[in-house]
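## Example record

The block below lists the input lines for one assembly entry, exactly as stored, with component labels intact.
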Amino acid sequence: HNFATCWRIQISRSNGKMREKSLTMDTLNPQVKAVEYAVRGPIVTKAGDIERGLQQGQKHPFTEVIKANIGDSHAMGQKPITFLRQVVALCSFPELLDSSIFPDDAKQRARRILQGCGGQSLGSYSASQGVDCIRQDIAVYIEQRDKGVPADWDNIYLTTGASDGIVSILKMLVSGQGRSRSGVMIPIPQYPLYSAAISEMEAVQINYYLDEDNCWALDINELHRAYQAAKEHCHPRVICIINPGNPTGQVQSKKCIEEVLHFAYEENLFVMSDEVYQDNVYSPDCQFHSFKKVLYEMGPEYFNTVELASFHSTSKGYSGECGFRGGYMEVLNLDLEVKAQLVKLLSVRLCPPVSGQAAMDVIVNPPLPHEPSYLQFHKEKSAVLGALAEKAQMTEQILNTVPGIKCNPVQGAMYAFPRIFIPPRAVEEAMCVSLLLLEETGICLVPGSGFGQREGTYHFRMTILPTTEKLKVLLEKLRDFHIKFLKEYASLEEPKR
Amino acid sequence: HNFATCWRIQISRSNGKMREKSLTMDTLNPQVKAVEYAVRGPIVTKAGDIERGLQQGQKHPFTEVIKANIGDSHAMGQKPITFLRQVVALCSFPELLDSSIFPDDAKQRARRILQGCGGQSLGSYSASQGVDCIRQDIAVYIEQRDKGVPADWDNIYLTTGASDGIVSILKMLVSGQGRSRSGVMIPIPQYPLYSAAISEMEAVQINYYLDEDNCWALDINELHRAYQAAKEHCHPRVICIINPGNPTGQVQSKKCIEEVLHFAYEENLFVMSDEVYQDNVYSPDCQFHSFKKVLYEMGPEYFNTVELASFHSTSKGYSGECGFRGGYMEVLNLDLEVKAQLVKLLSVRLCPPVSGQAAMDVIVNPPLPHEPSYLQFHKEKSAVLGALAEKAQMTEQILNTVPGIKCNPVQGAMYAFPRIFIPPRAVEEAMCVSLLLLEETGICLVPGSGFGQREGTYHFRMTILPTTEKLKVLLEKLRDFHIKFLKEYASLEEPKR
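Predicted structure tokens for the full assembly:
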């Protein structure tokens, strides 16, 4: 690097005309500038810095950074599902199909996937919509999940994680200028992919607030309010729902879903249901209902008309395979010409990663009771989901023992989104609390502002993914931190709770 | 499906108000509508239909569709590089690290990659820019490739194939309205990802024509012409170069690259060099020169100022691993604040597929001469590149024996882009020739219009990827077809050649 430094001096000495940068903050695409994505924002960058510092021997009041900022199961110690990885390894290196160390059901899955790939290789592009036989397996899975509601594999599209599908569908729906610009209804709090995509596409974000006092339930009156208000300045075209909720962890009731679908029917809205946490339901009183199944049960007038895109992923559930970037969407009642346009749009990116498609296939087509891998698979799956249920409950319980923190039940998904009550004098510091927490305890959370919250309220999102022991430590540290924080302000005023 | 049909009848009978579709061709995002992507366009759809028909016993004048429309090596029979797949399999199923069937160098690579992954799992999200140690390996590779020109791994970003990186960089550069709207200079003929992305972002496409009479060389005077003309109606901000060329197969000379970089320096343009075919150079007179190395050799005033993004991929070269969607970009001289914005933009999509990152790592970090896998790796790599060189030459030679076809040398990449001379009376049918060819011979090519061509000229793109035997058959069928086609018009006029 000495050479480079020397060069730089040379230039600054030359006093000649310096070439200006062509790309600066002034000339950057303003839509890119407008994008916000807190899940990987400044707090997380800081956490990475501290982590590197610890490795290099820097002293901190803790020995480890606990990253509870992102739903990254394997990074938090969850082990991969053996069967899934066996199938992916077999697909990656088919010579292993002759090896006796792999069970027959894994080999059968791998052979089927490879037969669907050009040249029987995971290295070929798939069709833009994904590998045919994987789309077929997904359709069968959906029919079984939804107790016989028909699923057509022609409506299934493999995606690069769920995010990719969500962005593709939104992209189709954004048009118009000024008051006829497309409006996108999203829950608040929301997963910031939605607000980021809306910013990037210059669509209009329409907030509907979830009801924190009612376990973050979706309130149909609030939907109407948000819709009517938005109609004054944009053209509401699509409603997004996240069920189970991220960051809010609620599981929607069938009645609530019916109301949403009826509303979408009446107002001619496109429905996008983000169902990536469909396998993550912990509360015994709750059950996952797919938007599709509820739509079906509302009768043909609904099922044959309402445009519905639903999304799933390899990243969550019990497999937690985020790195594979696998996912799919099912799109119902899409206009046939528009469907061709969607395929065209997807084809520009060629295809979703084929190993992610293979991972998705295993998730929708797991070992059956009579197959050799069933017992181990079932054991691993139950262990993951059991531990998550336990941690969901523990998180809620411990957080609710802390004065100034109130946490709704974590009915599903992978997060708690507790409200923190802060003395008025401390409000200005509220944005810094997460940073302070990180620096004092090594715990990395995301401030509620990254997901949206009602004005004057403060929250944070934390995952329930650390191991039970680590999560307990985290929650206790969090409690102590918050109590200490409140004490510093206690002389001035009692917390509002 | 009976039930569904029955429902539809019920609705049509009810005569009630039918819910209209919210998303139709009239309400679709017009930027999506404007996108074109011929590599997977209607000809390819038709080819798929015919293929399925053949499988179901339909009769055609051929027994097999040969898809020469897309650079999909494995689908055309190329075998994966063993070492690469061993590493990916080991990463996917680390229990194999204890198995004696894998060589030590593959295990060492896999261990290193896994150590860079959260929880040592391919299933964790990586950092948005990619796994640190893979970025480091890429920087070392670039330094070696460029004979010591320094590479900083902080400038390396893993991507989901090269396409993803290209779209991300373009997205940052698009801004302004009307005459200040960003203009993007692209070669014609081009790879249609560029025109598709430009349409989608409503940027202004600035065509500079490659010189067909000079082996598709880039002509600096043509660059100036295109730039000056564009300045009247937009703000030219970026120049894209594809070297070796797709679809044109030329390899740019060092002098030409110098001229382009000087031009970009003078006109303050951001440079995007698509170098995904850097390992695919066949002509003994040609050599791949990276834009970065040439920039370095032009001196510090250039190397420390010109903003340059260069792209590479797992999909091409000798590995042909398209399905893994691996790739990287190196971005030089990016403004520091803009760099943070780029990372933010990438973070919304979380990370590139980690198995694709692993594949990329093997390509930049292959077995060394003293390692156990070296001999086999070297043999496989040479066999692939040797066969491609042979097929490149054969394609040019056979095509140039056909009256009415003129093909430049395929110096590099994976395609021939021959010009076809068509009698004036046949011009109206020119667009249908590819379809006719497909229906009569089973050969699937992409018409030149999908890549852009000078008005009044006609071309097609074909890959050189079929096996040597199959490619020979393809070329002979093509010859016979074209001769027959010309004969039908011969009575009217001699071909213009």
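Chain B touches chain A through 112 residues (CB under 8 Å). DSSP finds 17 helices and 14 strands in chain B.
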